[in-house]
Design goal:
Length: 195
Protein backbone atom coordinates (compact mmCIF):
# COMPACT_ATOMS: atom_id res chain seq x y z
CA UNK A 1 0.00 0.00 0.00
CA UNK A 2 1.39 3.38 -0.93
CA UNK A 3 -0.43 6.38 0.42
CA UNK A 4 0.10 9.61 -1.47
CA UNK A 5 1.20 12.43 0.77
CA UNK A 6 0.18 15.86 -0.53
CA UNK A 7 2.78 18.56 -0.03
CA UNK A 8 0.25 20.88 1.63
CA UNK A 9 -0.91 18.27 4.18
CA UNK A 10 -0.48 19.28 7.83
CA UNK A 11 1.96 17.39 10.02
CA UNK A 12 -0.82 15.69 11.99
CA UNK A 13 -2.30 14.20 8.79
CA UNK A 14 1.17 13.15 7.58
CA UNK A 15 1.71 11.27 10.87
CA UNK A 16 -1.65 9.56 10.41
CA UNK A 17 -0.65 8.45 6.90
CA UNK A 18 2.64 7.08 8.26
CA UNK A 19 0.70 5.10 10.87
CA UNK A 20 -1.55 3.64 8.17
CA UNK A 21 1.48 2.76 6.00
CA UNK A 22 3.13 0.90 8.86
CA UNK A 23 0.04 -1.17 9.69
CA UNK A 24 0.22 -4.90 8.92
CA UNK A 25 -2.97 -6.83 8.25
CA UNK A 26 -3.79 -10.51 7.81
CA UNK A 27 -2.48 -11.98 4.55
CA UNK A 28 -6.02 -12.76 3.37
CA UNK A 29 -6.79 -9.02 3.17
CA UNK A 30 -5.67 -7.27 -0.02
CA UNK A 31 -5.53 -3.53 0.65
CA UNK A 32 -5.03 -0.67 -1.81
CA UNK A 33 -5.47 3.06 -1.97
CA UNK A 34 -8.47 4.34 -3.90
CA UNK A 35 -9.98 7.73 -4.69
CA UNK A 36 -10.87 9.65 -1.53
CA UNK A 37 -13.96 11.83 -1.16
CA UNK A 38 -13.09 15.46 -1.92
CA UNK A 39 -15.77 17.50 -0.16
CA UNK A 40 -16.15 15.91 3.26
CA UNK A 41 -12.96 17.28 4.80
CA UNK A 42 -9.89 19.33 3.85
CA UNK A 43 -7.75 16.16 3.85
CA UNK A 44 -8.78 12.57 3.16
CA UNK A 45 -7.40 9.17 2.21
CA UNK A 46 -9.37 6.09 1.20
CA UNK A 47 -8.42 2.42 1.20
CA UNK A 48 -10.36 -0.48 -0.28
CA UNK A 49 -9.94 -4.07 0.76
CA UNK A 50 -10.97 -7.51 -0.36
CA UNK A 51 -10.79 -10.62 1.78
CA UNK A 52 -9.70 -13.40 -0.53
CA UNK A 53 -10.13 -17.06 0.36
CA UNK A 54 -8.73 -20.15 -1.23
CA UNK A 55 -9.26 -20.40 -4.99
CA UNK A 56 -9.20 -16.57 -5.08
CA UNK A 57 -12.81 -16.44 -3.91
CA UNK A 58 -13.83 -13.00 -2.64
CA UNK A 59 -15.27 -13.48 0.84
CA UNK A 60 -15.82 -9.84 1.82
CA UNK A 61 -15.07 -6.35 0.63
CA UNK A 62 -14.80 -3.00 2.32
CA UNK A 63 -13.64 0.58 2.38
CA UNK A 64 -11.79 2.58 5.04
CA UNK A 65 -11.78 6.38 4.70
CA UNK A 66 -9.85 8.75 6.96
CA UNK A 67 -11.03 12.35 7.03
CA UNK A 68 -9.00 15.13 8.65
CA UNK A 69 -10.00 18.67 9.48
CA UNK A 70 -7.14 20.57 11.21
CA UNK A 71 -9.66 23.07 12.62
CA UNK A 72 -11.69 20.28 14.19
CA UNK A 73 -15.30 19.47 13.50
CA UNK A 74 -18.08 19.98 16.04
CA UNK A 75 -20.13 16.97 14.89
CA UNK A 76 -17.05 14.73 14.90
CA UNK A 77 -15.89 15.96 18.32
CA UNK A 78 -12.32 15.90 17.03
CA UNK A 79 -9.96 16.29 14.06
CA UNK A 80 -10.02 12.78 12.52
CA UNK A 81 -13.09 10.87 11.37
CA UNK A 82 -12.96 7.24 10.24
CA UNK A 83 -15.72 6.21 7.81
CA UNK A 84 -16.01 2.52 6.98
CA UNK A 85 -17.99 0.05 4.91
CA UNK A 86 -18.01 -3.77 5.05
CA UNK A 87 -19.98 -6.19 2.86
CA UNK A 88 -19.94 -10.00 2.97
CA UNK A 89 -22.08 -12.85 1.72
CA UNK A 90 -23.98 -14.85 4.33
CA UNK A 91 -25.79 -18.12 4.55
CA UNK A 92 -29.52 -17.55 4.22
CA UNK A 93 -30.19 -18.96 7.70
CA UNK A 94 -27.86 -16.37 9.26
CA UNK A 95 -29.50 -13.53 7.35
CA UNK A 96 -32.88 -14.58 8.75
CA UNK A 97 -31.65 -14.40 12.35
CA UNK A 98 -33.27 -11.35 14.01
CA UNK A 99 -30.16 -10.67 16.13
CA UNK A 100 -27.82 -10.42 13.11
CA UNK A 101 -27.66 -6.59 13.09
CA UNK A 102 -26.86 -6.46 16.82
CA UNK A 103 -24.25 -9.18 16.46
CA UNK A 104 -22.72 -7.40 13.46
CA UNK A 105 -22.47 -4.15 15.42
CA UNK A 106 -20.87 -6.01 18.33
CA UNK A 107 -18.09 -7.15 15.96
CA UNK A 108 -17.08 -3.51 15.54
CA UNK A 109 -17.30 -2.55 19.21
CA UNK A 110 -15.32 -5.63 20.27
CA UNK A 111 -12.67 -5.00 17.59
CA UNK A 112 -12.20 -1.39 18.71
CA UNK A 113 -11.96 -2.47 22.37
CA UNK A 114 -9.60 -5.36 21.61
CA UNK A 115 -7.28 -3.02 19.67
CA UNK A 116 -7.57 -0.44 22.50
CA UNK A 117 -8.64 2.24 20.07
CA UNK A 118 -9.50 5.64 21.57
CA UNK A 119 -12.68 6.81 19.81
CA UNK A 120 -15.80 8.97 20.23
CA UNK A 121 -19.06 9.78 18.44
CA UNK A 122 -19.51 6.31 16.93
CA UNK A 123 -22.51 5.68 14.69
CA UNK A 124 -23.59 3.35 11.93
CA UNK A 125 -25.94 0.78 10.49
CA UNK A 126 -25.96 -2.96 9.90
CA UNK A 127 -28.14 -4.10 7.01
CA UNK A 128 -29.00 -7.56 5.78
CA UNK A 129 -29.93 -7.99 2.16
CA UNK A 130 -31.56 -11.10 0.69
CA UNK A 131 -32.16 -11.58 -3.01
CA UNK A 132 -34.34 -14.10 -4.78
CA UNK A 133 -34.41 -14.31 -8.58
CA UNK A 134 -37.56 -14.67 -10.70
CA UNK A 135 -38.53 -15.10 -14.33
CA UNK A 136 -35.69 -15.95 -16.69
CA UNK A 137 -33.28 -15.64 -13.74
CA UNK A 138 -35.36 -17.99 -11.56
CA UNK A 139 -32.77 -20.77 -11.68
CA UNK A 140 -30.33 -18.72 -9.56
CA UNK A 141 -29.99 -19.62 -5.92
CA UNK A 142 -31.18 -17.06 -3.33
CA UNK A 143 -28.36 -15.01 -1.83
CA UNK A 144 -27.85 -13.01 1.34
CA UNK A 145 -25.37 -10.33 2.38
CA UNK A 146 -24.60 -8.27 5.44
CA UNK A 147 -23.49 -4.66 5.07
CA UNK A 148 -22.08 -2.46 7.81
CA UNK A 149 -21.57 1.27 7.53
CA UNK A 150 -19.89 2.85 10.52
CA UNK A 151 -18.00 5.98 11.44
CA UNK A 152 -16.21 7.19 14.53
CA UNK A 153 -13.84 9.91 15.64
CA UNK A 154 -10.25 8.87 16.18
CA UNK A 155 -9.01 10.66 19.29
CA UNK A 156 -5.33 10.56 18.31
CA UNK A 157 -3.20 10.21 15.17
CA UNK A 158 -2.23 6.57 15.90
CA UNK A 159 -4.44 5.32 13.11
CA UNK A 160 -2.89 1.86 12.79
CA UNK A 161 -5.11 0.31 15.49
CA UNK A 162 -8.20 1.85 13.85
CA UNK A 163 -7.29 0.23 10.53
CA UNK A 164 -6.57 -3.09 12.27
CA UNK A 165 -9.91 -3.01 14.11
CA UNK A 166 -11.76 -2.39 10.84
CA UNK A 167 -9.79 -5.23 9.20
CA UNK A 168 -10.80 -7.49 12.12
CA UNK A 169 -14.47 -6.73 11.39
CA UNK A 170 -13.89 -7.42 7.69
CA UNK A 171 -12.28 -10.78 8.53
CA UNK A 172 -15.09 -11.70 10.93
CA UNK A 173 -17.73 -10.84 8.33
CA UNK A 174 -15.83 -13.02 5.85
CA UNK A 175 -15.99 -15.95 8.27
CA UNK A 176 -12.24 -16.14 8.93
CA UNK A 177 -11.21 -17.57 12.29
CA UNK A 178 -9.73 -14.99 14.66
CA UNK A 179 -5.96 -14.92 15.09
CA UNK A 180 -4.75 -15.53 18.62
CA UNK A 181 -3.08 -12.54 20.28
CA UNK A 182 0.56 -12.30 19.27
CA UNK A 183 0.21 -14.84 16.46
CA UNK A 184 1.02 -13.79 12.93
CA UNK A 185 -0.67 -15.73 10.14
CA UNK A 186 1.64 -17.24 7.55
CA UNK A 187 0.87 -16.06 4.04
CA UNK A 188 -0.95 -18.59 1.91
CA UNK A 189 0.21 -19.06 -1.64
CA UNK A 190 -2.50 -17.94 -3.99
CA UNK A 191 -2.50 -18.20 -7.74
CA UNK A 192 -3.21 -15.08 -9.75
CA UNK A 193 -6.37 -14.84 -11.76
CA UNK A 194 -5.97 -14.35 -15.46
CA UNK A 195 -7.50 -11.07 -16.61
Amino acid sequence: MSLREPDEAPEQFRRALEALRATRLRPEIALEETAAPQRLAPHAVALSADVVGEDDEELATGRFVLLHDPAGHETWQGHFRVVTFVRAELELELAADPVLPSVGWSWLIEALETRQVPYAAISGTVTRVTSEAFGSMGDREPTAEVEMRASWTALDSRLGPHLQAWADVLATAAGLPPLAAGVVALPRSRGRRAH
